[in-house]
Amino acid sequence: MTNVKRPYLRKLDKSRNRAMIATYHNRHRGERCFIIGNGPSLNQTDLTLLKNEITFGMNKIYLNTIKMGYLPTYMVTVNPLVIAQSVECLLQMDVPKFVGHEGLKFLPIRDDIIYFMAYSQKHHFADTIQKNIWQGGTVTYCAMQIAYFMGFEEVVLVGVDHYYMCNGKPNQTVISEGKDMNHFHPDYFSKGMRWQLPDIEASEEAYALAKEAFERRGGRIIDATIGGRLTVFDRIRYADVFKQ
Q1: pLDDT bracket for residue 136 (50, 70, 90)
Q2: N or C, fewer C-beta in 10 Å, the chain?
Q3: 45 burial type by CB count under 10 A (0-12 exposed, 13-18 middle, 19+ buried)
Q4: What is the DSSP code (8-state) at residue 60?
């Protein structure tokens, strides 16, 4: 029944995909990673300091990789509107890409693309990405669940501003009317592009679940975003991250 409702799932060899996912389980046990958000604060953040760190880039981070001087270690993207706008650039990125199942509408089956089932219902934190995971209103939460599955002990957030200059209902699809002031690049959602308004409440609920999951396992998520407004996680100055 699922494949009837979502015919694009038919092209996915689920056994092969599960086997691909399994190769990442606890691959980075006890290590540190950085999840790079897409907020305007990235323009105040020296991301060159992360060149030799394990990083998760999300959505349209490819607009910043020339400035960064490197590609992220892993990519994560889940929103179908973003994926549809990013197909060519995503395929050109020679890194493993974790893509929500709706990405099958736009992207091919390839060895560097790992699909996961991401839904908007069933609020929970998944300890395995081989089953359905909750999107939590933000790709950042998906990245946290992937990082947990990989065994990371410490996750450091940068560029997760948790603030948007926009009006409307959460998840409402709107059309950009000019330069994008909500992300690090003015053409992130340029004039005429469709995008979905953020769900701040859902993301905060999701982040709280992620915090509990990591701490229950003896790990932690800390927020080094410059000027960010997220209050769920302990804050740390970005410069101080590298003194630990």
Answers
A1: very high
A2: N
A3: buried
A4: T
